[in-house]
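Morning run. Coffee first, then this:
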Amino acid sequence: MKTEPLPKFPARKTLAKLAGLRPVVVIDTREQTPLEFSRLQSRRGTLATGDYSFHGGEDHLAIERKSVADLVGCCMGANRERFFRELHRMRGFAFRRLLIVGSPEEIEQGQYRSAIKPRSVLATLSAIEARFDVPVVFRPDPADAAWQVEEWVWWYAREIILSANQLLPSRNHE
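And here it is:
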């Protein structure tokens, strides 16, 4: 019987700490208008990359959140280079997402304050997915975006806990 290798998750020591815990969303201290979470606890913390992660998984899960206006601002000039450096750092994370609060239609219809053409913004999103291997996900409003972050954190942390349970010695006594 062939044993499947475990996915790349935190070291055993970290797994043991996480095995019995509910995940806590970590909100980067630089996030000016953080999402409001209703199902998971959250706390502020300094993240090296991204705006959201979870306690104990800060080096494994990174979610960068942008509004459509923020995204458009990141598509040109010095902001573009800074944004691309952030995305480049995200490549080292097992789970990474660019979460855009808004819709593709807002971009297609140019519903933002900038002279940049919608085609350029959409091409930048395609480049992000291709160059940095960072999936781009749209959610229509902050409440839906918060719900999505909680889903990702819950399911990713759950995978770590399942891995921890496989690695830890059995507590059953025969």
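The chain has one domain: 12-167. Good start to the day.
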